[in-house]
Structure formats: structure tokens, C-alpha cells
Request: fold
Amino acid sequence: MGWLNKLCLVIALLFCFWGNSSVNAATIPDPPKQDIYLADFSNMVQAEEKKEILEIGKDLDTRFGAQLVVVTVDTLEDDSIEDYANKLFRSWGIGDKTKNNGVLLLIAKNDRKFRIEVGYGLEGALTDGFCGSVLDGMTSYFKDEEYSEGIIKAYRKLAMKTYTEYDATPPEGSKVVEEAEEEYEWWEDILYGGIFIILILLVIFVGRPLAMFLIVMALCLLLDLLLVLIYIVTLGKYGSISFEHLSSSFNGSGSGGGSGRHSKNDSDSSFFSFGSDDDSDSGFGGGSSGGGGSSGGW
Reply:
């Protein structure tokens, strides 16, 4: 009977190993069938912020196929947040399959970790550095357990960058514009403008070799200031608060290489569908991750 005891012991050890692996491995949840832009498994987002996320997410998806998704989970178990985010992103297929323009904001509440995962199609706009700054902005809210407010502010910033990448503006009345205006330090342009003017005057009176160069630089700065003024007066419908707008005007493409860009008519075609009650947000587009991102904690 010795061999039988050994066989039973081996089987018992296998079952123990399998059981421990099942407990420790973080399970990727099934993708939601509706309201796909927020999967709040940890109940971190309040009703008002949830409504705004779903409206902004639907608008981006309808107009550009870009899917900006927030997922909250209790724990990652033994997975790193980078691995978990990548697996979830690919498993759900966030973003358009061709454009790969999905974005995932993943939050593990009990682990006190978060990550922004970006698809290839938006890596030029949502750079690792920008995503890191968005997460840094969430930290103070999360430390005070103001999760919902921290998440919606991060979502607005990511959304604004995405609209800018497609040379588009958020729907009228959207708080995405308000958030962008709060972030913009307009006084810096005034300060730098004054410095440029002083330098130009000094060069004119002291020496002329660099005068033309500085004058051109000053004109470029004044143009950016004009774009900012137009942006503020029109509540974000025209103009720009980003210096990237000026460079993209010269090279004909944005920071993301111009992939998936829409014309103004394309952007405006679904303008009035914002916040409608149809079920067009019923599934993901089959996109893939791999464009970068950033991780952090609080």
C-alpha cells in the first residue's frame, strides 16, 4: 500500500498547488455590455461623475472611435498593475481595432495603485510624461479618499488631450473645457512675452545680428497668445491652449503622426449626439495596447 499512499500525497499536493494558484491569480473580469466607459467594480465613482464619464466617453467613441475607459478593482492579487492593465486592455479590446486608440485608467483600490495604459494610436498625444502628471494630480484626492473627484479630473484631462489630437473640441457646456482652462497658466505667456519684447529692444539698440531671429520668435509667441485668447472667448470651440497646435499647423500633423484624424465636418457630424439614450456604447472595438502609459500609487 506504500505506492498508493505516495500517489494520494502527490494528488493532494497538486490540488493544493492548483488551489493556491487560483486564489492568487488576478482574474480579468468580463467586459461590460453597456456603459462600457466605466466599470466601477470597487464603487469609487459617484453618480454625477459616472454620468459625465459615460457622456464624454460616448462622444469620443462616436466621433473618433477612441474609447477612454475607467476600471476600478479591489485588488490585483499577485499581478503587477502593468501586467494586469495590459491583459485587461487586450482581453476587452479597448479602442478601434484599426486605429488602436483606446485608453485605460485602471485603479486597484486596496493595493493603492493606478495606471494609465495607452494604445499605439494615441501614444503621441498621451505621452508617458503627460500620463504621469495626470496620475500625480489624482494622488492628493485619493489620499483624502475623494476618489470620485480625483477620477473625474483625470478623465477630463485625458479626454481634452484626445480631443486636441483629433483637432476637435468637446461638446458645448462640457466640463472638459473648464478643467483645461484651470490647468492653463496664462500668466506664463504674458511673462515670457514681456521677456521676448525686452530682449528684442536690447538687441535692436545693442546689436542687430539676432534681431530678425528674435522678432520671428516674438511673432510666433504673439500668435500663440492670440490662439489662447480666441480659445477663452469662444469657450474652447476655436483657438488652442496648446503650443503643439502651432507646430502641427506647420507640419500638417499632430504629435501622434496624424493617424486617424478627422476633418472638422467629421468631428461636428455627431456633435449633437452627446448624451443621447441609444445603445451605441454596447461593445469595445477590438483595439490593442502597447503604446505606453504610466503607473503610480497613493
Observations:
- The first helix runs from residue 2 to 24.
- Strands lie at 38-40, 67-73, 102-108, 113-119, 289-297.
